[in-house]
Amino acid sequence: MKTILVFGVSGVGKSWLCRQAAASLGLRHVSGSELIRAEKERLTSQIVSADELRTDRVVDNQELLLAGFRIYEAQDSTSILFDGHNVVDTNDGLVRIPFEVISGLRPAGIAVVVDTPAAIISRRNADSTRGRPQRNEETLSNYQDLCLELAKDHATLLSVPMESIASGNTDAFVAFLRPLL
Q1: How confident is the model at residue 27, as a pLDDT?
Q2: Which of 101, 139, 148, 173 could form a Cys-Cys staple with 62, CB 3.0–4.6 A?
Q3: Is 133 exposed, middle or buried (0-12, 13-18, 19+ CB in 10 A)?
Q4: What is the pTM for the complete model shown?
Q5: 48 φ, ψ to 5°?
Q6: What's the pLDDT tens digit per position in 10-54?
Q7: β-strands 28-31, 80-83 pairing
């Protein structure tokens, strides 16, 4: 079983791309927020929203993420597309996910989904199900650049391949994934 980490700015289209690739390649797909939310609910018996996770103690939640991932990982031997963030956009600014968390997921590769800031803003505005901070194009561009920079650094430290994938480009994503599985 292999785990491929899929990062990118909130609203870039990671989940859609992961669903397409998972269906095409027979992979499991899970988001970091699902795992954190499930662990919080299991420990507290209280319902937790995805938006609460962004405004909560982001770094503290990473222990829950790793615990939830271990449970998810043990359910099946099918490879996993992990849809998450290496940088979280909070109301107080950008929070980098510690390298120890990234390495704890034991990735076989890292993909970063990218798009133009204008397209990301448009996608965010069309999604009324999520309460994301309002960001301008320059801020989103800087956020995306940081996601890419950290992914490259982490891939180098972990000696795994890293690829930047254009949002919606399922063919390029599948081509990146196939040799890793």
Answers
A1: 98
A2: 101
A3: middle
A4: 0.91
A5: -125, 130
A6: 999 999 999 999 999 999 999 998 998 888 887 776 665 555 554
A7: parallel
DSSP letters spanning 161-174: -EEEEETT-HHHHH
Strand partners, 114: 166
Cross-strand partners of 163: 111
CA distances from 3 to 29, 53, 72, 111 (A): 10, 23, 12, 11
Q: In this predicted structure, what is the pLDDT of residue 54?
A: 47
According to DSSP, the residues that pair with 95 across neighbouring strands are 88
The whole-angstrom distance between residue 20's C-alpha and the CA centroid of its chain comes to: 15
More confident residue, 91 or 80: 80
CB 94 within 8 A of CB 146: yes
Residue from 32, 1, 6, 9 nearest 155 by CA: 6
| SS3 (DSSP) at 45 | coil
